[in-house]
Description:
There is one protein chain. The protein has helices at 7-10, 16-28, 60-66, 75-78, 101-118, 142-154, 167-170, 192-202, 215-219, 242-265, 280-292, and strands spanning 45-48, 70-73, 81-87, 95-96, 99-100, 122-129, 132-139, 178-184, 206-213, 227-229, 236-238, 269-274. The chain is an alpha/beta fold. It has two domains: 3-31 and 79-292, 3-Layer(aba) Sandwich (Rossmann fold); 41-75, no CATH class. The strands form four sheets. A six-stranded mixed β-sheet has the order 7-6-3-8-9-12, sandwiched between helices. A two-stranded antiparallel ribbon has the order 1-2. The chain has a two-stranded antiparallel ribbon with strand order 4-5. The longest helix has 24 residues, at 242-265. It is globular. The two termini are 29 Å apart. Residues 45-250 form the DUF58 domain. InterPro entries: DUF58 (IPR002881), vWFA_dom_sf (IPR036465). Pfam families: DUF58.
Amino acid sequence: MSQLLDPKVLMAIKDLSLAARTVVDGFMAGLNRSQVKGAGLEFSQYRSYQPGDDLRWLDWKMYARSDRYYIRESETETAISVRFLLDASNSMNHRCGEITKMDYARYLAAALAWLAHLQGDATGLFAFRDGRLFSLPSRRDPQHLARLFFQLENLQPAGKFTEELQYRQLFTGERRRELLVFITDLYQHGQEISRLLASLAALQHELIVFHIMGRNELEMDYAGYTTLEDLETGQTVDINDTDMKRSYATGLQQYLAGIRRQMLGQHIFYRLLRMDQSLDSALRDFLQQRQKSIT
């Protein structure tokens, strides 16, 4: 694994576009590029000929070797729309060590967007912030990607997660193939995020949820602090109590198990990411789900 995939190292690269390219270049160096679909390759993969296929894409060399007809899938046949959904509510200001959840989400989204762009995909951005929804429609051109990076760089968490909206209308597009990537800490006051995920799952798009949590949250490690304050409600809780910490650990495991069951039941790909964790696994998960959505 490249050190450049470490989020703490990435924080030293202030240019988000450069950071994204650095992450993906380091990641791709460890992959067999012939397994990766997208722009920059002569073709992405072979598949068996089907009646009605354009004969211009027949590979006659493969036919000579195997006596079977194969079609070369081109970039345009494998391009999809990838929409990034970012939780930008105030809880994403939670800090663990040197970085916040928003920092981690920002660099993660930028790297995934660059990877999608390399594969010829359209990319879009939706940010749930302060009860409102910012949207940047999906496009494929480099100028649009630069706009997406600009919005990510300037996105600052505020307020609560967006309440009821017409999610079905927002995320129902004309494209047949679409991948939705939701980056969030899953912190909610009611069931606003759960309702959003249920609506998105019902649309039958491929959906990935990257759940960001800090090591201090997972291990209840707040050395030197006796109380914690909720970033969105201002409520405080006493943590200087052994029994409280024990019950917290039990409750956390039950909470995470419940989330996994919920995601499994809705056929949503779910990955818990620690803020001190390399972006390597997230990039692999994204690539696998992206290729599932085009088959």
